[in-house]
């Protein structure tokens, strides 16, 4: 007779967790034996043959690092590789940023963008206690699903502000501005710097100014997540313009920065977290104190960040010739995505697919919010072996000249069949 369970973690205390939807989608795609299957869930760049693309500039950086006679695998400092974090800050803020010149920036290397968001969340959970602070984090509706888990895991409550307008498949700027104005003063506002995930809908420069004005008037605390700089438009400066505007206007803010997409360093987990103090007589002292506490948090969580991806990024960021080549690589990636947007929209309009499809080319970056319903997504999967998230988001990187027509025909068929 088997003994009764003696675990300290019975099912009522530790229920079986559901499978992560994206990883479940990947598993189902791999198990599908159809020769026509299409993976539009993957959040990574693919070339026109559907293969992972190692950036040519990254290959050159690899060669330089491997041939360095002083290469070793010693620990990095707690705050990371300085030649990486300093240039990462310049990339986000601009080399001539007054914040950098006035030493109002504290930077810490992180486990990519996810680790940067987590470190920022942990810092705010522990230290955002100024009089009148509202510790609720306002995120866009919708947002990257992991945002919700990261903030709630450290005890910060989540609220949402309107973002995606399903009628126009664009930005609900009026709803967003009203929600930010109605939120309690000194709330934490999470903002996607560019290539909003999952919608691909970004505010215009004028709309960013309106957003900044409301946030400043309500004394909110901006938290920027920047995962696609340079990958979104092909222009590093354009994709950082929202962050730079907020800093220019004197905002105190934090930035979670990833190099997974724009350098293709997905598995190397190269990222950075930056705190930017507002201009003030005590700004340098504030920055020094914040940096000291970030180091303590980092020490207790990962002790030291990983070195290799940071070395690759630092090699590219610090060499003018490699940096210029990287910009070309970024234009290659973003250009292919733009071409696929144009091709998909053109095919849907050519077929006369019911609805309007202008939003496919209006949106930017890796993802597009198609407007397809959950039922239509399910039918695309069951009838056409097309895999995408149930909210209708597709990864444009999964499309290529070999499958874009097949996908467009499948969408046309499903939309007509569910009208």
TrEMBL record:
Protein name per the record: Aspartate aminotransferase
UniProt-listed CDD domains: AAT_like
Keyword set, alphabetical order: Aminotransferase, Pyridoxal phosphate, Transferase
Organism: Immersiella caudata
Subunit annotation: Homodimer.
GO biological process: aspartate biosynthetic process
Stored PROSITE patterns: AA_TRANSFER_CLASS_1
InterPro entries: Aminotransferase_I/II_large, Asp_trans, NHTrfase_class1_PyrdxlP-BS, PyrdxlP-dep_Trfase, PyrdxlP-dep_Trfase_major, PyrdxlP-dep_Trfase_small
Family matches, as PANTHER family: ASPARTATE AMINOTRANSFERASE, GLUTAMATE OXALOACETATE TRANSAMINASE 1, ISOFORM B
A Gene Ontology cellular-component term: cytosol
């Amino acid at each position: 007779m088997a003994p009764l369970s003696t675990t300290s973690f019975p099912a009522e205390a530790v229920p079986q967790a559901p499978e992560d939807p994206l990883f479940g989608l990947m598993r189902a795609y791999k198990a599908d034996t159809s020769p026509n299957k299409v993976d539009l869930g993957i959040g990574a760049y693919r070339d026109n043959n559907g293969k992972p693309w190692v950036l040519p500039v990254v290959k050159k950086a690899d060669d330089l690092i491997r041939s360095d006679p002083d290469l070793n695998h010693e620990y990095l400092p707690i705050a990371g590789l300085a030649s990486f974090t300093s240039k990462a800050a310049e990339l986000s803020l601009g080399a001539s940023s007054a914040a950098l010149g006035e030493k109002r920036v504290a930077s810490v290397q992180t486990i990519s963008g996810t680790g940067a968001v987590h470190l920022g969340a942990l810092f705010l959970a522990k230290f955002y206690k100024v009089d009148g602070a509202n510790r609720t984090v306002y995120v866009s509706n919708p947002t990257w699903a992991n945002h919700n888990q990261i903030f709630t895991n450290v005890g910060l409550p989540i609220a949402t502000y309107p973002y995606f307008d399903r009628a126009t498949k664009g930005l609900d700027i009026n709803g967003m501005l009203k929600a930010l104005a109605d939120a309690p003063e000194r709330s934490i506002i999470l903002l996607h710097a560019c290539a909003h995930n999952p919608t691909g809908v970004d505010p215009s420069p004028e709309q960013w100014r309106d957003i900044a004005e409301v946030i400043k008037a309500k004394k909110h605390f901006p938290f920027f997540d920047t995962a696609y700089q340079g990958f979104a438009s092909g222009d590093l400066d354009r994709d950082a313009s929202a962050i730079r505007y907020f800093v220019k206007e004197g905002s105190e803010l934090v930035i979670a920065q990833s190099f997974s997409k724009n350098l293709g360093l997905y598995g190397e987990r190269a990222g950075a977290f930056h705190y930017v103090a507002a201009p003030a007589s005590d700004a340098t002292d504030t920055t020094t104190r914040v940096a000291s506490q970030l180091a303590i948090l980092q020490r207790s969580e990962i002790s030291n960040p990983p070195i290799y991806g940071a070395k690759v990024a630092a090699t590219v960021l610090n060499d003018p010739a490699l940096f210029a080549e990287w910009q070309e690589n970024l234009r290659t990636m973003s250009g292919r995505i733009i071409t696929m947007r144009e091709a998909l929209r053109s095919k849907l309009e050519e077929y006369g697919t019911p609805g309007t499809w202008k939003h496919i080319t209006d949106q930017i970056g890796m993802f597009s919010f198609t407007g397809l319903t959950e039922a239509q997504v399910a039918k695309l999967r069951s009838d056409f072996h097309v895999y995408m998230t149930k909210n209708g988001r597709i990864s444009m990187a999964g499309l290529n000249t070999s499958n874009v027509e097949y996908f467009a025909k499948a969408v046309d068929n499903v939309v007509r069949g569910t009208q």
